[in-house]
Amino acid sequence: MSTTLASSSSSASQNKSQSNSTSIPDGQSVTKRLQTELVQLMMSSTPGISAFPESDSNLLNWQGTIEGPSNTPYENLKFKISLNFNSNYPYEAPLVKFISPMWHPNVDMSGNICLDILKDKWSAVYNVQTILLSLQSLLGEPNNKSPLNAQAAQLWDEDPTEYKRLLMLRYEEFE
């Protein structure tokens, strides 16, 4: 009987340990997840988005590129972003910022982004590709009800020509 009890206790403690490891990722599982996401992104044929780790030795800091969608003020423009993942990824969203100067209702002058999936609507099912596609979509469909740049939000609705002029004043091309 004591063998059965010890076996049950051991089994319960293994189950508890396993359930803890699925709720709080360790550094190795974060790295493995990011490696998988990198391969998926490289194999994807989604045009206009890309992202890679800044170095082979640190998978937690990435740099991405987003091309502006067609039929928007951002058409034919490219923007750099940074993605910084913490040890709780994918249970916490990465910190994503525009590196390129940006003129957009939901991006402040420092590159900070107001996008629900990067804040309160984040889910562990999202990945780097989801983030990049959401940002690309945001370029053509800003949320003017929650602007970080009120002037850009107003001009988006009222004066597209002036909006484009101010966008191009801030825009910096890169290779």
Automatic annotation (TrEMBL):
What the entry lists under Gene3D superfamilies is as follows: Ubiquitin Conjugating Enzyme
Outline the extent of the UBC core domain. 29-175
Q: Give the domain of life.
A: Eukaryota
For this protein, what is any one GO molecular function term? ubiquitin conjugating enzyme activity
Q: Locations of Low complexity compositional bias?
A: 1-23
Q: What class of enzyme is it?
A: transferase
Which Pfam families does this chain map to?
UQ_con (PF00179)
Active site residues per record: 114
UniProt KW keywords? ATP-binding, Nucleotide-binding, Transferase, Ubl conjugation pathway
Which EC number(s) does UniProt give? 2.3.2.23
Q: Which GO terms describe its biological process?
A: deactivation of mitotic spindle assembly checkpoint; ubiquitin-dependent protein catabolic process
Record carries keyword Nucleotide-binding: yes
Q: Which InterPro entries match?
A: Ub_conjugating_enzyme, UBC, UBQ-conjugating_AS, UBQ-conjugating_enzyme/RWD
Q: Where is this region: Disordered?
A: 1-29
Q: Name the protein family.
A: Belongs to the ubiquitin-conjugating enzyme family.
- Its protein name is E2 ubiquitin-conjugating enzyme
